[in-house]
Amino acid sequence: MHDSICSLRAGKEELSMRRIKRVFFWMLFLGFTVAGCGAVGPLDNGEEFYLIVPIPPGISYEISGDFYTPQPGGPTDSGLHEGIDYDVPEGTPIIASAPGVVIEAGELGATGKRVLIQHTNNFRTNYGHLGSIQVANNQEVSRGQRIGFSGNIPGFQGNPHIHFGLYRDSQAIDPQPYFR
Prior knowledge:
Layout: H1 17-29, E1 62-65, E2 84-87, E3 93-95, E4 100-107, E5 113-118, E6 123-133, E7 140-141, E8 146-150, E9 161-168, E10 171-173
Antiparallel strand pairs: 1-2, 2-9, 3-8, 4-5, 4-7, 5-6, 6-8, 6-9, 9-10
């Protein structure tokens, strides 16, 4: 028996992507959680891309918005949510989920400050609703490096939170399967 879906990739024998997707589907359908697993299979360059939660270990948080959960009055016309919202107190350190280069760090209109990091194989991570930023454009960052602190955006509905998004080739994708 496997401890988790992550254990299915053992030794040199990996399950096919089709079979792993099928296992993920049935685990979700049956109510199992798959959060915490790394990416499935190697990237184009042979490396494995994975994420860590953008909140440092030992700090509690709640997920208040899942990827593509309909959000009343959400940021897009369709009301869909292209990321995960982590409820954290104002001033909570926020860390880089993977190594990369900061391609944007600054104000993002009425939603506060944000950091956008470019990773290998056209992956990007977006950290929104920051109160302050600790990195600069073109700066290399390592996995787990502090990039800023959470903020409380005036006039924004809900609790203070961080919006975390994952993109590949400019397409929003669900980050959950990439967490370790």
